Every structure is written in C-alpha cells, then in structure tokens.
Amino acid sequence: MSSRTPEQIRASIEQNREELGMSLVRLRDEVTELTDWRAQVRRNEKTLQVAAAAAGFLVAGGVGGALNAVFGRSKRRRR
Asked: Looking at the structure, do residues 24 and 45 belong to the same domain, yes or no?
C-alpha cells in the first residue's frame, strides 16, 4: 500500500495539472513561432536571397548559358 495520504495524492494531481497546463502553453508558443513563415523569412532573408539568385541563374541557363554568352559558341556544328 501507498504511504501517501489522500490529501497528498490530490496535491500531487493538482501539481501535475498545473505543470501540464504550463507545458501546453509553452508548446503552443513554440508551434506558433515555428509555423510563422514570415518570421522565418525575416530571420533567413540573406540566405533566401542568395538561394533565389542561384536558382534564377540556373533556371536562366546556368554556367553553360553564361559561357555561351561570353564565348559565343553555337550549338550547331560547322560542316
């Protein structure tokens, strides 16, 4: 048998309820912060700008397109 009194058990249950409530509030705050895409963009703005520039470069032709523009190489072979 347990040596705790009913009052001690009730107090323990109440303390657990309070701790659970605080944990839920912290969890909600963390989820809100992690799912706030605007804040994520603000925190990582420079990285996103570099990634967007790199993606745009690749979509626009990448290194091959740049070399072709610089050296004027044609895709057709001369006969």
From this structure: no
User: How far is Cα 25 from Cα 54, in angstroms, rounded to an integer?
Assistant: 40
Per-residue pLDDT of the chain (79 residues; tens, 9 = 90+): 569 999 999 999 999 999 999 999 999 999 999 999 899 999 999 999 999 999 888 887 777 777 777 787 555 555 5
Is there a contact between 77 and 71 (Cβ–Cβ < 8 Å)? no
Q: How many CB atoms lie within 10 A of CB 48?
A: 13
**19, 52: one domain:** no
The total number of structural domains that make up the chain: 2
Q: Taking the complete model, does pTM exceed 0.70, yes or no?
A: no
CA–CA gap between residue 61 and residue 55 (Å, rounded): 10
46 in the same domain as 69: yes
